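Q: I'm writing up a methods section and want to include an example of the input and output format. Could you take the sequence below and give the corresponding predicted structure tokens, formatted cleanly so I can copy it straight into the document?
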Amino acid sequence: MMNNENDFQALDDAYNNYLDKLNSVSIEFQTAVPVKPEQLKEALKPKPNWKYHEDLTIKEIEDYITRTYSAHYSSKIQTLDLIESVGDAEAFCRSNILKYASRYDKKGSAKMDIMKIIHYAILLYHFSGQNNEIEAPYETF
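A: Here is the clean output for your methods example:
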């Protein structure tokens, strides 16, 4: 067990040394999908110390959104694309956030309602142009 700052520093130094070597060496894996050194580096990077396991929630959201695309959207043009073409995408996303929030846990799965709220919030973020703006982060609580 590490008990002092020197132990943590030694571990951090060893990890950084490993990452440096990883960048300079070509690694071959016997997998169906080739793994690039930068992908492995990212996978091995320590995860943030998030108290509420937000990293797991983000992964669940990503999986949910991926499933919606494979289940619902077989055409390259989606209904939301048509709604955007008439300038109503932001209002549509906001309205759906309100719809799923107001019916939360009343029509089946509370978790599914939350997934839909988050998905529409991500879409609202996109259509409002927020993903193009970089602002200084701020604490909300």
